[in-house]
Amino acid sequence: MVMRLLKRSMVVLLVLTAVLAALPAHARLIKPGTVPTLEAGEGLLVVGIDSNMPLVRVKVRKDNAVFGGGDMKDLPEGRSLRLYALPAGRYEWSQLRPLRYLTYDLRNEPEFEFVIEAGRINYAGDLQFRAKTVNDSTFHVANRSLGVIDWLKQEHPQVYASYDLAYTGHYPDPFPAFYRSVVEKAGAEPARDLALSPPPKPGALPLAVRALWKEDRVLRARINPAGTLVAVHVKVADKRWDVELVDLAAGNATRLATSNVAFGNIVWADDRVVLLPVSEEGMEEIHAARIGDPVAGKRTIEQYTLSRKGFVVDTLPKEDGHILFGSVNLRGELLVHRMDVSSAAAAKRFQFDARDRMNLGVKDDVRWFTDGEGQLRLAIALKDDPAPRKKDEDGEEERPPPRKRVLMYGAHGTYREVMEIARDDEERFDPEGVSSDGALIYGITEKGRAQKELVAFDPVTKTIARTVFSKPGIDVVTALFDDAHNLIGAAYYQGGMLVSEYFDATASAQARLLTEAFSGKTVVVGDRSRDGRQLLVWVEAGDQPAQLYHLDAVKREAVLIDESKPDLPVAALAPSKAFVFKGHDGTPLEAFITLPRAPGRHPLILFPHGGPIGISDKLHYDPEVQFLASLGYAVLRVNFRGSDGYGKAFREKGHRNLGTAIEDDIDAAIGAAAAQYPVDTARMCAVGTSYGGYSSMIMAIRWPSRFRCAVTIAGVSDRILFFTASDGGRIKSARAIMEKVIGNPHTDLAAMQASSPIYQYHELKVPVMIVHGTEDVRVDLEHARRLQRMLEIDGRPPVGLVFEKEGHGMEKIDNIETMWTGIAGFLQAHLGASPLPAATVAAP
Prior knowledge:
Elements: E1 4-7, E2 28-29, E3 42-51, E4 55-62, E5 65-75, E6 78-87, E7 89-99, E8 102-105, E9 113-116, E10 121-133, E11 136-142, H1 145-155, H2 157-162, E12 165-167, H3 175-186, H4 209-212, E13 218-223, E14 229-237, E15 240-247, E16 252-259, E17 267-268, E18 273-278, E19 285-295, E20 298-305, E21 311-314, E22 322-328, E23 334-340, H5 344-349, E24 365-370, E25 376-383, E26 404-411, E27 414-420, E28 429-434, E29 441-445, E30 453-458, E31 463-469, E32 476-481, E33 487-494, E34 497-502, H6 505-517, E35 522-528, E36 534-541, E37 544-552, E38 557-563, E39 576-582, E40 588-594, E41 602-606, H7 623-630, E42 634-639, H8 648-652, H9 661-676, E43 679-689, H10 691-702, E44 709-713, H11 732-741, H12 749-754, E45 768-773, H13 782-793, E46 799-803, H14 813-831, H15 838-841
Parallel strand pairs: 3-10, 10-12, 41-42, 41-43, 43-44, 44-45, 45-46
Antiparallel strand pairs: 1-8, 2-6, 3-6, 4-5, 4-7, 7-8, 7-9, 10-11, 13-14, 14-15, 15-16, 17-18, 18-19, 19-20, 21-22, 22-23, 24-25, 25-26, 26-27, 28-29, 29-30, 30-31, 32-33, 33-34, 35-36, 36-37, 37-38, 39-40, 40-42
């Protein structure tokens, strides 16, 4: 959440102590070992601050009034907890100052409000602050009540014994009371802050983690309009990226440019000039290369850099050597200019005069779409809420609501608003482009429809003129355009593969040719020459990382240019197949089975996807699936109800069915897979990330005799906690969606407890492995801590790994290797080791 910045006049380095100053007037700091006598109308408050840097001050207001001395000063890095007695009422975190010259205003943000009730211990969550740079910081509130319980029992045991602890946020949290009752019944509890025991070490790994997860060599490629040259963006080493120039006629490649950061979206301004954006943050520095004719097999290359940072809005296909160039002035305004980039001299002569900009008539524009003539026709712009804002007691206006995104349509400096882009996925219209003549706006929408469809919107009548492309029960992913901005097709997923369907007969014939040539693989046209005869084609499958081909449509020849993972032994990868079946209630469903190449029946890994709503599995190369298959395990992935890509009704079938009907679909998939494929369902474990981790545990709870183990990676263990310790739970609009999709803790508390592993821990009998990152804001580490503690109380401690400074997904390759090596050892301990034959693995 980005907060308003109040700049101070000087920069002062911090010399900080670990002392918390007094809270607002009438608040009393309770020292460890003392038991306070609460006055009438008083309650206790546990204050939690968690920061990755020392803080100068954190300020609190009560009932919208500023207290004298109502702040905490000189807070140390890390987590600070203190206990106070103070009057009941409504409070809010009002100000956070990481540096003496920099203050974040938190006032009037519902996320930072909390209530203190009399006669109990109140806890409103930890205020967490994470600073990346001076002007790039995030903060939110996360419920970490288990740590609070441990701290109270250590520092204030008599207070904890005398008063109930209650979380006081947007939603209830029954865990503190539940935990107290479990411990009282057990008569004891395990030692606090025990580290997870590491998983067993695995046997030999047929495929190395680093090889499977190695970053792709080929990132993108563009062909020039004439179809003679290709610029290929490749990663050749750590912190080194190149652009290679491939001469299709000569059949050779030369290095065109190199950088220590990745290049951006490479584009050709004409047949000879290619633009190579480079950016670490913000606007891009754009390098250009003008390529000469071949002489004695070599080409001259003129290198130059555009004089201003920015980005390419349009390549103006009808004006060789010219582009529409976007940049930002000192006032933060977007400027779009028509620019000559045909040579170093032309680029140097260009003057960025604001009076010559083409995007006049629109305020706060952030993106533009052009027609076939290169005219600016449609903008996405930000718009403030016109409603007047109230003022607080200091005379300061309340924080404005989030700015709306609107579509502005017109031409030549005259534009009008035609639509507000809704935030709700079901109501949203996602613009894809405008027609070549500029008369229609193409976009994808689901509003009033059974699935996401490609439509043409008339900006004059402000209505949808027609449905351009629709496929019953299948969601359109994107629209396809040619170089001249003509709409030529649409893309969607079917059978797990991305399908491009073209409206033009020639393009359709080319697509059929490619489908026949690369049967059973996803084939995507990445770029094409202006005449459509020379194409760059990406070919991929579950057992085939992406390969880049040049297709000569006239000669009907496809030649491999490069591949994303040239060092990976493709023959050792396991193929994946899609199959359809019906759920227990008759719902049509789709799943994917990946079988090791070795003969025989294989132990089965259930691998449910995250989400669960609006996410789906597909038949792209997946290092996680291939790693599990390399161990000799079959891998089953299920696009259960709620998954994306199958239309609105199917997606809505998943609403409020977490832990119930969704897992019933997975159960039906197990039966269907066992009937068709050589899988051993007597040796089965469940492994998943995020919702997949939750699903793995809940299946082991529902069918304990069928599973031998469960692995939860960044998994939800408490459905109710997800509302008070996640990034979605701290945004009002997101909370409304969560209540609709997941359930409402205010009204569905019992049902959500019944389908939460935390509250059903005694039924989680199989061995459990936990993997989590300390900086996970999607599923807070508190989920892992609570699960570990409850299983320890039950005498069945889990094994696992906790990674410092990792979020919801592992990013560091060392941690990825440690995690999957540990998972391999855990699975082998409970399913047995079933590696592929060495000869198969070593095959070229």
